[in-house]
Amino acid sequence: MGVDLESGNPGSYRRPLYHVVIINGEGRVIENQESVPLPRLIRLVWQYRPDTVAFDNIMELADNRKTLTRILEMFPVETRIVQVTLDKTGFRSMRELAKPYRDLVGPGKLTPGRTAYLAALLASQGQGTPVRVVEQRTLITVSKARSPTGGGYSQQRYQRRVRASVLNATMRVKEALDRAGLDYDMSYRRSEGGLESAVFTVYASREKLVGIVRPHRGLDYVVDVKPVYKVNLNIGAGEPPRTRPVIVGVDPGITTGLAVIDLKGRILLLESGKNLDRGALLDKIARTGRPILVAVDVRDPPETVKKLAAQLGASIYSPPSDLSIAEKRALAAKALRGSTPEDSHQRDALAAALKALQVLDGKLKHVESQVRRIGLDINVNTVKEAVLRGLTVAEALEAAIEQELESLQKTPAGSGETRRKSTMPNPRGCSQQGSELEIVIEHLKSRIRELEDENERLREDIERRITSFKAEVYRDSLLEKMTHQIEILTGQVETLKSELASSSKQLARMEDLLVRVWKRELVVAPRLRSLTVSNIRRVVERMGSLEGEILYLENPVYEEKALDEAKRRGVLGIIVTGSVDVSLLAKAARKRLIPVVLLNSGGRPEYLSESIVVLPAGIAETVRRERRALEEAASASLRIENIIKEYRIERSRRG
Q: Is 207 helix (H, G, I), strand (E, B) or coil?
């Protein structure tokens, strides 16, 4: 699809109209529309789903980058957006690009229709540069399936069981992503006994997670997996890269706080947002400067911060112990001159960055004093940055001196080129440039030897400290791992306790019912949802003979054949709840001498299982009484019929 602006202008009072041309693989026009407004243009893209949409100037869609990004997000993800006038050599005009295609485009001025056709033709032959970069990510959310309300046991235990289920599901997702070797960020909300929720931002398409993490909706937790697309623009050099060194404070979580300060403690950025992934954080940080240190307010940096620092190429600062809320408030209030951040996440991020600068302030001042003592015009900020990145002061000074030596050696003697002026006083009698350089070099070599000695002493000290530090790290990591395992096991124990309590109640209830059956206060009866032949046979297969048994029927729906089957099996009677109409069933059953008795409000069934109930013993006696009455009535009726039959036979003989 080729598109060219026909009239109007984005951002003006005249809404823009476009000329749209769609060609097939052979270059033949299959659609040509004039005066197309932007909504219709977007609809046509979705209708035809072209491989590529080509423009001669992408800014004909919008008058600023933000609006353009929002518009391009409305296009299908799989469609390439190309500006044909941009290539590796730079910008080329459509008039220049049209020269080889005059036979196809036609002579004369390039009208919007011709320009749109030419753009489509050029894009089909690989001309141009994609201006939209779509980053595919996947968001995995693990959360509670329902609000924690009381069940058959205490509400707190129920809540802990649900949170433990969320924790277990979160750990399974994490293990699956780790096994697959996928890059991801993880944030979560802790709670007593487990987790309230967890969010994974996986830096991979949804298709790559097939078979690794599956959506799930259960009684306790939900795992939701959905793709997320982020659109970036590639339409020029953009803003020049910033070079000032900065310190970044991060408070990761479902809501992430971000703070950026310079080496003077000035706040360059302070904000927070929900589900901010690593890419969004990198974009925000890149606009402020060159990060040399990433700081957190807790002793153990989260995995998300470690990955962020690695991508930034920065060191990590974490305090010896977690910062208290009072200390974080004091640090933030001092930097903001008495005002407070918008939320606690911004406060924690800002306090982490300020704490890092505060702790390193003495080292930075030491750098300044060392540079002054050397007496060379070395860029002090370069040395500071090297120190903050993890070098010792001696190593940073050596690196700066080495750069100075390289610059001096590259400058030919007597060339007259301007050099950095040494603050060291020139010896008397050295007036020529070559002599000055020799003296400076000798001085620097002497300083290097001194620094090498100091460096050797510092290395030995560092080795001793590293040995001690490794032992502490191993102990802390082992403690953290065991603490995490304890949390998981605690959640599982609470779940098992809840299930045990429920099972104990059920067992006590069963024992009570069996004792009452043994005392003949209750009778056992098969339970049928409706009276069908298949249901009766299913009961017989499971329980054996029904001779002399009472059936408990939940629904008065019946089959005539089922009544015959019940009579053949020797069923004593049928009991039905008293809230339904059983007149038809009772009438049909009486013909087969099977009484139907309503279970009145004075008694109710107790369910032992899906197929067995226990009933008050009095209802069984009622059934037997009704059965005897039906049998006596049937017997009396049979006697009367026999008397009448004998009378008729006798009368016929007399006649």
A: helix
Distance in angstroms (rounded) separating the CA atoms of residues 71 and 59: 11
CB 301 within 8 Å of CB 320: no
pLDDT over 90, % of the chain = 15
pTM of the model: 0.45
Element (H, E) at 99: none
Most confident of 76-90, 246-260, 605-619: 246-260
DSSP string for 475-523 = HHHHHHHHHHHHHHHHHHHHHHHHHHHHHHHHHHHHHHHHHHHHTTSEE
Report whether 251 contacts 232 (CB < 8 A). Answer: no
CA distance 185 to 162: 24
Q: What is the reported pLDDT for 154?
A: 62
Q: Are 157 and 41 in contact (CB under 8 A)?
A: no
Output the pLDDT for position 4.
Answer: 93
Write the DSSP assignment of 123-148 as a string of letters: HHTT-SEE-EEEEEEEEEEEEESS--
Position 10 scores a pLDDT of: 84
113-138 as b/e, with b when 16 or more CB fall inside 10 Å? bbbbbbbbbbbbeebbeebbebebbb
Count of CA atoms in the C-beta half-sphere (13 A) of 313: 5
186 — phi, psi (to 5°)?
-130, 135
The answer to whether 262 touches 289, Cβ cutoff 8 Å, is yes
pLDDT digits (tens, 9 = 90+) for 425-439: 444 444 444 544 554
Q: Could you report how far apart the first and last alpha carbons of the chain are, in Å?
A: 111
- Residue whose C-alpha is closest to residue 296's, from 306, 286, 288: 306
Per-residue confidence (pLDDT) for residue 549, from 0 to 100: 86
Q: Of 417, 413, 387, whose CA–CA distance to 400 is shortest?
A: 387
More confident residue, 372 or 68: 68
Check: CB of residue 573 under 8 Å from CB of residue 596: yes
Beta bridge partners, 233, equal: 132
pLDDT > 70 in the chain, percent: 85
Indicate whether 443 pLDDT > 50: yes
Report d(CA 242, CA 297) in Å as an integer: 26
**Rounded distance between C-alpha atoms, residue 139 and residue 144, angstroms:** 16
Average pLDDT over every residue of 351-356:
92
Does residue 394 carry a pLDDT above 70?
yes
Tell me how far apart the alpha carbons of residues 274 and 122 are, in angstroms, rounded to a whole number: 42
The confidence score (pLDDT) of residue 40 equals 93
- Domains of the chain in sequence order: 2-130 (3.30.420), 135-233 (3.30.70.600), 245-366 (3.30.420.10), 379-413+434-461 (no CATH), 522-641 (3.40.50)
3-class SS at 633?
A: helix
Q: Which residues contact 359 (CB under 8 A, 6 or more apart)?
A: 317, 319
Q: Are 172 and 198 in contact (CB under 8 A)?
A: no
